[in-house]
Amino acid sequence: MTIAEILLQDFDTEISNTRRTLERVPENKNNWKCHDKSMPLGRLAMHCATLPMFGYYILEDDGMDMATSKRPHMALEFTTRENALKQLEECSAKCRASLASASDERLSTLWKFSYGEQVISHKPRSQSFREMCFDHLIHHTAQVGVYLRLNDIPVPALYGPSADEQWSA
């Protein structure tokens, strides 16, 4: 198997988990947050929906300097659940196509992520993709799960059963 084929297995699982979680985000709690330091639910949901676009940037660009990035920031305004799911579909489709066409050589090259002179990461593109796309997406999808629980909304079974659902592989 190629590196891309291995990453695609995880990609499809994580996008499915994110979709199942976003399908439960209520449309009347955009500004709800569980703590003053927490991101509002609507913004968090849109961050999850658009994170695959950052994965696309990792795959397509030679690096990224956030101080001078030419890539647009994704809009994080939650309007409707349907729109969040549409954004997830569009961003993940673009990312998946890029990942599917990435060679082992491309995925093995170093990818530098910085903010001006401050280097945040300088690792192989495949590792940058796993950490900054997958791990980041998993982290925030789990946060949405906590928000759902705190609002008495059933939490989907993602990696095993939840208190609300049985899990099936």
UniProtKB/TrEMBL annotation:
Gene3D superfamilies: dinb family like domain (1.20.120.450). InterPro entries: DinB-like, DinB/YfiT-like. Residues 11-144 form the DinB-like domain. It comes from the Bacteria. This is Putative damage-inducible protein DinB.
